[in-house]
Specification:
Elements (H helix, E strand, L loop, with lengths): L5 E5 L2 E8 L5 E5 L12 H12 L2 E5 L18 H15 L4 E6 L3 H10 L4 E7 L17 H14 L3 H7 L7 H14 L2 H14 L3 H4 L6 E6 L7 H10 L4 E5 L12 H13 L9 E11 L2 H8 L1 H21 L3 E5 L3 E6 L2 H17 L4 E13 L2 E3 L1 H12 L5 E4 H6 L7 E9 L2 E10 L7
Parallel strand pairs: 3-4, 3-5, 5-6, 6-7, 7-8, 12-14
Antiparallel strand pairs: 1-2, 2-4, 9-11, 9-12, 10-11, 12-13, 14-16, 15-16
Length: 449
């Protein structure tokens, strides 16, 4: 759950902050333009912060000029030294005498300066997808050229706060309308396009904290994407070469954000081990779960009838309501399948309620779904699931008619006594699965279990 937002007072303005967790290690998450309140509206960001708070006392804040903190003049943004001093004020306010810093993107320079100038107050430093200098120079070819920086400014000016910008800068969001919509809102809540561009133009354009790197004497972990375009991997390698004793871990992909990337758990495990000395015990690779498959009926014919643009609008609406119902019923979306979803639940009753709610809501869009549910042991494969229980749920779904939610006998037995009514659909063969399987249709009147 989000912590209460409070304010640290500085002569230059108020800084919004939150504190959660009660572990002995203090940890500050430092980033650029943010909104610590809207972060919690993202399931992925909330999980990321909760994992950090599971092994630390986590301190979050909006730097001046963003989110719930006081604004800054567009023509006179703070220097990196002033941003670093704001961090000191936040730490003083929450009573932290010594902390680890986890800095991402344009939070990096302030964290570098703070670690170099306040070594007694820093226990460790994690730098992710950041740089000591944004613009290239004769002795720093890793930065952006002037032309590239001009293009970046234009991209920010024209796209900041839009879903198109979210998809362009974060490939993981390209096919996920829920995350695109949230990130567009998050950008707008963090800063206006004009305010953010003013910060990028003035602060990034002049930034050069290379002289501070050799003075860093705390354990330092550097995480950097190999394919990140606007802060190339060479920037991370430069940091590693110039911070004494630092460790570099290069990550695949080009997503600048850490919390929503496919390797988010690996990143969290790596940071936890670096700060605590202990690698977290991995989750069991097999769990008992109810597996739900759905897909839209006659999707190809409907797409051809109404055209691509209208069809994609309907798909987006379908995906948004599917996400909402899965979260409402405490499920986990595994993936979308083009015109359907795969999700798992810790309760077959919640899987049934989710499928029934989706059925009713898509009918209001003029669509129909078929759904299948089975409960059994599933294999956890990173963000995916596998095993015979998943195969069975898929096969059950394929036998459902338009508007039907079919369940296996296993599911019907597990919710016995709940008052849920079923219609017996007899014994059925499931492709590739041995034996005959008794299936049941879920009655449209859902029991209140």
């Amino acid at each position: 759950m989000p912590a209460e937002t409070r304010y640290a007072r500085t002569p230059r303005g108020d800084i919004a902050y939150q504190v959660l967790g009660d572990s002995p290690i203090d940890l500050v998450y430092v980033s650029g333009a943010t909104n610590i309140d809207v972060r919690w509206e993202s399931q992925e960001f909330a999980h990321f912060q909760e994992r950090l708070a599971s092994f630390s006392r986590l301190i979050l804040f909006d730097r001046r000029g963003s989110g719930a903190s006081d604004g800054i003049p567009l023509d006179a943004p703070p220097t990196w030294e002033e941003f670093a001093d704001d961090l000191r004020v936040v730490l003083d306010t929450v009573g932290s005498s010594r902390t680890a810093l986890f800095a991402n993107l344009d939070g990096g320079p302030a964290a570098i300066l703070f670690a170099a100038t306040q070594p007694a107050r820093v226990s460790a430093l994690v730098l992710a997808n950041t740089t000591a200098k944004a613009i290239a120079a004769e002795d720093y070819p890793a930065g952006l050229t002037s032309d590239q920086f001009a293009v970046l400014i234009k991209v920010f000016e024209e796209g900041w706060g839009s879903e198109q910008f979210a998809a362009l800068t974060n490939p993981t969001y390209a096919n996920d309308p829920r995350q695109r919509s949230w990130f567009a809102k998050y950008m707008r809540a963090s800063a206006s396009p004009r305010a953010y561009v003013a910060q990028v133009r003035a602060i990034w354009g002049s930034m050069d904290v290379r002289a501070a790197l050799a003075s860093i004497r705390v354990p330092t972990l550097i995480l950097h994407r190999r394919e990140l375009a606007w802060i190339s991997a060479e920037n991370g390698r430069y940091l590693s070469e110039h911070i004494p004793g630092s460790k570099l871990v290069e990550l695949d992909g080009s997503d600048p954000l850490l919390f929503s990337s496919p390797d988010a758990e690996f990143i969290l495990d790596t940071v936890e081990e670096f700060l605590t000395g202990v690698r977290p015990v991995p989750e069991p690779d097999r769990v008992l779960a109810a597996v739900l498959f759905t897909d839209l009926v006659d999707s190809t014919r409907r797409a051809a009838a109404i055209g691509d643009r209208a069809w994609h609008k309907l798909l987006d609406a379908h995906d948004q309501l599917a996400h909402a119902e899965i979260e409402r019923n405490r499920g986990l979306l595994i993936k979308t399948t083009g015109d359907g979803i795969l999700a798992r639940f810790d309760s077959p009753g919640r899987a049934i309620r989710c499928a029934a709610a989706m059925r009713e809501q898509v009918e209001q869009l003029g669509l129909e779904i078929r759904a299948g549910i089975h409960a059994g042991e599933v294999e956890l494969r990173g963000d995916d699931v596998g095993g015979i229980a998943v195969v069975i749920a898929s096969r059950v779904s394929s036998l459902a008619k338009a508007g039907e939610v079919l369940v296996s006998r296993t599911v019907a037995d597990l919710v016995a006594g709940s008052g849920q009514r079923f219609r017996d659909r007899g014994m059925n063969s499931l492709k590739g699965v041995p034996g005959e399987w008794q299936l049941f249709e879920v009655d449209r009147e859902i029991a209140p279990y």
